[in-house]
Write a structure and sequence with these properties.
homodimer; Arc Repressor Mutant, subunit A; DNA-binding; mainly alpha; 6 helices
Chain lengths: ~150, ~150
Amino acid sequence: MSLDEGIIADIRQFNRFYTNILGVLNKHVLDTGYTLTEARVVLEIGFMEPCIANQLVEKLDMDRSYMSRIISKLQKDGLLEKESSPLDNRTSLIRLTPKGAELFQQLNERSDEQIERLLDGLSPTEITEVRSSMLFIQSKMNRLERAQNDSI
Amino acid sequence: MSLDEGIIADIRQFNRFYTNILGVLNKHVLDTGYTLTEARVVLEIGFMEPCIANQLVEKLDMDRSYMSRIISKLQKDGLLEKESSPLDNRTSLIRLTPKGAELFQQLNERSDEQIERLLDGLSPTEITEVRSSMLFIQSKMNRLERAQNDSI
DNA sequence: CTCCTTTAGTGGACATAGTCAACAATTAAT
DNA sequence: ATTAATTGTTGACTATGTCCACTAAAGGAG
């Protein structure tokens, strides 16, 4: 045991706490007719387009086959289109259609509103401090995330 | 739009980031023969015992029926025992058996090790600062979590 | 080039996780 | 006393995720 017990307990407490926060947020991105996972895929395509399925798989840490099925569904629904890549004939370049972009925008707006509601009641100073704390945590842990993924 | 766009974007970015962190951690609590959800239930019983099913449902934000099935399984496996409550005949007081307490301890140790690994490479000062940032975020968002749950 | 290995995507079959509606028993409220 | 709300259970279902086998194309190594 190299670390103070209290620190670990506090961090585990924070993880439980933040699990709940994320749970509340995720639960209410819905109501678009798409599931949470589908919505996450649409959002990620919106951020990365054009992209290939495998990039989405890695980014969202999902199973290939699962992603394949979701992409099929979204394509059938007219939210995205695939263009076979000139560089690698195994892959397709994926882009949102106008209809997909519309959903993307809707999801973004809802997410933004959720964050605003989450911060409602805090002063501008407090909000700035929360943001700084998040950026700080991220800066300290983000190389570690990679390292841990690699080691597994 | 009352808030600076950048702040919301940063917070959403942090949420995506921390979703991944929690995903990595959760993926490897396993290997005890129990699923993540079952493990969470065992942990929560360990923290709260004696408790009733409904408290676990609220704490872990799970469906009643799902919890009922998990509790049945854990009981069948000899990890917990139910004593019918003298105060309310609808409910049972739930406690870990010695075997359940053993798993509880194992889960706790693993979780602690994971956090240590997550912090590995940071200086004591950095670790302290990360902890402070987490406590700060929690203190600011704490009451809000409740308020949001209620309003929904 | 040819042979071998790796990578990207797909589909079938399955396993796990979570949800919904109906119900019985009990307790709380009016 | 009657009605309403709570607790837990079960069946049926949907959503989510995993595993395996397979095809097709790239990327080497010789």
